[in-house]
Design a protein that fits this description.
Length: 320
Amino acid sequence: MQARMRLLAAIDVGTNTVRMLVAAKEGGRLRPVLRRRRITGLGKSLRENGAIGEKEFRNSIAALREFRREMDALGVAWYRACGTAGLREASNRDAFLSAAAGKGVSVEIISAREEARRTWEGVTGHAKAGGGALVMDIGGGSTEFIAGPKEGDSISLPIGVVVLLGSFRLSDPPLRTELRNLAYFLADRIAAGTRGWQRRTFRRMVGTAGTFTTLAALDMRMKAYRPERIDGFRMDVSAVRRWEKRLCRLPEAERLRLPGMEKGRERYIVPGVIQALSAMEIFGLNNLYISDSGLLEGILRGIANGKGEGEWRGKGWKKG
């Protein structure tokens, strides 16, 4: 039945995770058919040498090869693969794009501005987004603050969790001095980077991407990830603070044993939750709503509406 549907796919080649979402277009609605994610740590070596490391390069290309095979098996009609902060910065990005194309996946590196706009478009299908919402997207290479789809409605800061751990070495478990230094840096960087927005009135924070979805899964002690339960889950600032304290004092092996912790996320959750809490405190927000939707859903909407900068079908190219 799936082969007879018009299937669309979006791929996000992120600094930490490579993800794919396949959806069936049914009238004006997109129904998820398949979700895939592989934590490959693509940007792990960026702060050290400015390039994607050999292991991370190889694992990320392997993930794309796997995704291509799954798209072919399903009969996907159109796809768009987008690279974000890690590929924007990597000195060997051209080699990566060439290797990806050799496996049948043409990756387009998008700007921080488009990344924010697509994320907003993906999140705004959520009932808790919209008026008064401040969307925070914590990635591997950058963190986006998004208040709308227009020019000037987004701020991108180079404080993604992979980048942070390339600059701040944390012991296992982290020492108090290490945590204080990281928290001070993040509070200062977020406050300075969003200073022009601090007179704006926001009523809630909407968090998207791995840090936030992991917090929701942890809070629900979720043994198997269920996006329909994650989407719209609410946490208040005191719950985020409790998780920050708990996660920061545990070694990585113990974090991984917590119900809801995804393998590969146990190392990066600490800088993620510290900056999430910092942002809530800076903006004086008590309520956090978590969205499972984000960049992938925004890319899909662009394809479905014919408004994407480029959509790919098989090996051909179509300008939107």
